[in-house]
Specification:
3 copies of one chain form a homotrimer.
Chain A: E1 4-9, H1 17-28, E2 33-38, H2 46-56, E3 65-69, E4 80-85, E5 88-93, H3 99-102, E6 109-113, H4 128-141, H5 146-149, E7 150-152, E8 165-167, E9 170-178, E10 184-186, E11 201-205, E12 208-212, E13 225-229, E14 235-239, H6 244-248, E15 255-259
Parallel strand pairs in A: 1-2, 1-3, 3-5
Antiparallel strand pairs in A: 4-5, 4-6, 6-7, 8-9, 9-10, 9-15, 10-14, 11-12, 11-15, 13-14
Chain lengths: 260, 260, 260
């Protein structure tokens, strides 16, 4: 059985671009197993893609091949990239998209795919997902090692979310992403804030102060703000039954201050 | 071959949450067969999810495992639930989401999954879809019976769409949901309105009266309202080539009156 | 192994309609292999569906069965249709949706499915995708030849994108579609404009003139318009890091003039 290929892109669902990636993979590897993580990353938002990829990766099979394409530099000087961490492989552009996910257990190995015999016969200037990354992912899933289709690189582009900052009065973090429910996910882990046992914290975010964390969303009254330790392993700001980002004026980069 | 797992959630397509569900299933059951019904249920709209699940279920294989997650009460007191009707199983929150689909052939059997050894090792307070429901669905698809991973419950939450009301002058129903085309699907079956043979009806909806039903959408002039007996088995109000909800002011709950 | 079934519809992701198609196929053919091209074609926009289907098809396995449903005339006089080109089959409504994709190697063979024993037992007036096209696609993927479930037709509806027009001063084309990034894809191939070697062209589109083509998007300054030869094989107008359609006022049908 070939390795699972998991796809994450900013291709959206209006076009068939994501379907074409899968079509190329199925052409190369008819028995391929594929899984859509999401194709709804905001166009060209590498950071949003990196965060979602890192949050998802630990829950997939340990030998998954991740095909990730958020690629504003396509066709230019940015290199194609393979990263390997343990048995996981990541294929996509060398723009920081995959670093956070691939570096959770330390710096990954890195290669740049440079053997055109593994690509589609014609490579366009605008769609390397289709012409280069998808066939490379299919080759990896079929068991071809990175060494056979790529050359080592020493300096892949690195991006990780900013860490919180400790001050005299508390810890300052920020909103890393807003999810489809309007929940604002921060970069603040409970352990960053003195937990346990001093885990009761106050958030000042967008001018609002919220006492927390609560054990779950519905522990707050309907329509009220609530802070929980969410599925990203960090504090997130929600509104029970509502949309926190819209109601509290939260966006990516909004500072979040925790005071004990 | 394992049983098909069909997924329905309100996770949207901007995040990788739906992909993570599938990743957990693939981790537990590499040969899993999965099918996305939709991840576009409006956030936290249990009723919208229930209606779409019930409309879809009869068209899937009879031994399908349905994994349904619209779960505003996650992490709180609402129980996790398994329902079984015939060979179909439904896994998700005990909030009425699955009842309508599972009760079409009479009251289903019900259990609450309470054996943590079948779950992920850590269960978050915000994402039981990932941590609890997905691994339970994988176990069911692999052939584990509900009895092995859950305890019986006698009082699952029940929700079914409201029935029409008969009055001296006709039948009053309502719009149950508006689909992506803007078609307004009602709770009025032809048989509720005296069909056959008295199947010519008039709808007063949002102040508009529409003679019907027509045999198909395009039987009305382009841009005109039309009532058909739709794919839900009930009357639906459409505009040929247009968006009925927007053009006629229809929304969930809009009364629809049928007079012969 | 059955043939791959690739789906393209305007069903959107808010409803479970696309999931139901796949459920019917899985009911008929449990070992089916399915691939979503897109379900995000704008409602009832046959031309947008035709263009995306034609762009995707060459990248899928050569014996793929394409199930395409953009079907404003459902239930009326438009026929159901099967087209065959080489080993590829296309199943959907006879409204021009599939012609462009199926005719790239010359006129395809055409049939109309007319053997109800291959359909669902009840065929609704509004959802032939579910009741007729999906089971026919499953039969084709399982190896049933078109001749066994359909009768030949001589006059399928034909639609191909308009060709460019040559004038004394240059070539006039138009925007065929705007993709999810806001890139405006035209009907102008490099060869239509005298390439090579006279491949430097100027676009006048929406009142803007853009010198091109550039080798890739990021060859233009950030925020500036750029013309590239895109993944459709034609010139497309983009904005590096931006949304060309919004910023330049481009839409389907906008004239694009190339002067050497």
């Amino acid at each position: 059985m070939p390795r699972l290929i998991a796809l994450l892109t900013d291709f959206g669902t209006a076009d068939a671009y994501a379907g074409v990636l899968k079509g190329v993979i199925a052409s190369r590897l008819p028995e391929a197993r594929m899984l859509d993580l999401t194709h709804g990353i905001p166009p060209q938002d590498v950071q949003a893609g990196a965060l979602r990829l890192a949050a998802a990766a630990p829950f997939l099979p340990p030998d998954t091949v991740f095909l990730a394409v958020v690629d504003p530099g396509v066709g230019g000087e940015r290199r194609p990239l393979i990263l390997r961490s343990g048995d996981r492989c990541f294929v996509g552009p060398d723009n920081g998209l995959m670093w956070h996910a691939a570096s959770s257990d330390g710096p990954p190995e890195a290669w740049t795919p440079d053997r055109p015999e593994f690509w589609l016969p014609t490579v366009s200037a605008t769609f390397h997902g289709r012409d280069l990354f998808a066939p490379v992912a299919a080759a990896l899933a079929a068991g071809t090692p990175p060494e056979a289709l790529a050359s080592p690189v020493a300096d892949p582009v690195r991006w990780s979310p900013p860490p919180p900052v400790w001050t005299a009065t508390g810890v300052t973090g920020e909103v890393l992403l807003v999810d489809g429910y309007g929940n604002a996910i921060t970069n603040l882990r409970p352990v960053d804030c003195g937990d346990p046992p001093d885990y009761r914290v106050t958030f000042a975010a967008g001018g609002h102060a919220v006492r927390g964390p609560a054990p779950y969303y519905a522990a707050a009254p309907k329509g009220s703000p609530v802070v929980v330790c969410g599925s990203y392993g960090t504090f997130e700001i929600a509104v029970n039954g509502g949309n926190a980002a819209a109601q509290l004026g939260l966006a990516v980069g909004t500072p979040v201050v925790v005071q004990r």
